[in-house]
Amino acid sequence: MNRKNPLKRLYNWVLHWAETPYGAYALFAVAISESSFFPIPPDVLLIALSISKPKKSYYYALLCTIGSVLGGILGYYIGYGLMEAIGIKILTFYGAMEQFEKIAYYYQQYDALAVGAAGFTPIPYKVFTIAAGACRISFPVFIIASIISRGTRFFIQAILLSIFGEKIKKFIDKYFNLLSLLFFVLLILGFVVVKLVIQK
Length: 200
Description:
Elements: H1 6-16, H2 23-34, H3 43-52, H4 57-81, H5 83-93, H6 97-110, H7 112-117, H8 125-134, H9 139-164, H10 169-199
Helix pairs in contact: 2-4, 3-4, 3-9, 4-5, 4-8, 4-9, 6-8, 9-10
């Protein structure tokens, strides 16, 4: 089965690092690469490592966040200066050109809010990072929004795993996108409230 499914083999290869002494290094590397070109999200390894060592789940979430933001910077500069040479090839390879066009529109309309949404949607983060560079989104805004959104995503998982351990894994697998969407809606409402208070 795996021989006929390269993506599944790659998934299992990422997952196997949780059983080695190099799991944290692999997690950091996957978090960096997934933000710009790699197909497997770091969440799978984050969950596996956190289940095996619940007390280190926050450390793993921090590694994920730092790696993801660094990889996001790479994706941003691919979109900013290497769109024709590399960016289009990456997006075409993943069949994500249509998603890219939609995200580019959202960037033009909503700027920082669209960057923040990147951390909570099932759309590959690499599409958002490359689009951010291609659309010339403010780099400081991109970094701040990436830290907040990606950090929140990974730390939500870390909190759940540190408290509930393996029991929560199936719940995360099934409902994480819904939980992330709910959090993002609350985040937007928070921005709206703050804006209204400032205007008063």
